[in-house]
Amino acid sequence: MKRILLVEDEEVLRMLVVDTLEDEDYVVDEAADGIEAVKLLKNRTYDLIILDYMMPGYTGLEIIEKIQSSEIKNQGKILMLSAKSQQFEQERILEAGADYFMAKPFSPLKLIEQIEVILHEAESLQN
Fold first, then answer.
1. The pLDDT of residue 26
2. What is the DSSP code (8-state) at residue 100?
3. Residues 6+ apart with CB under 8 A from 5
4. Does the predicted model carry a pTM greater than 0.85?
5. What's the whole-number average pLDDT of the chain?
6. Which of 19, 39, 60, 89 is spaced 20 to 30 Å from 4 by Cα?
7. Residues 31-63: b if buried by 16+ CB within 10 A, e if exposed
């Protein structure tokens, strides 16, 4: 089973995404802010990290910096969620180290489709 970390400060959205992912048989850990996310990342490896861009504690970009440093062990792919969907923001997020970007608002079905693509690509690279 694939393990996913969802980092999202909007509780209703976080609950919706967790329910959707669990319905698809993913194991999901959740964090409501960047500080909680970093604690989880230090103790567990994930196949996919879904990060909100703007959060209390640490932003999504600051969490990526921590993942890239020696502070956190090697992690899987990173999907950044953001309401900031302008092209320059997307480029900034991807240049910072996110593997994928998805604009908010999004449909849960589109999220599942994107996750399946990401995890399939990651699996293909490992084989």
1. 96
2. E
3. 28, 29, 30, 31, 37, 40, 41, 44, 46, 48, 49, 50
4. yes
5. 90
6. 89
7. bbebebbbebbeeeebbbbbbbbebebbbbbbb
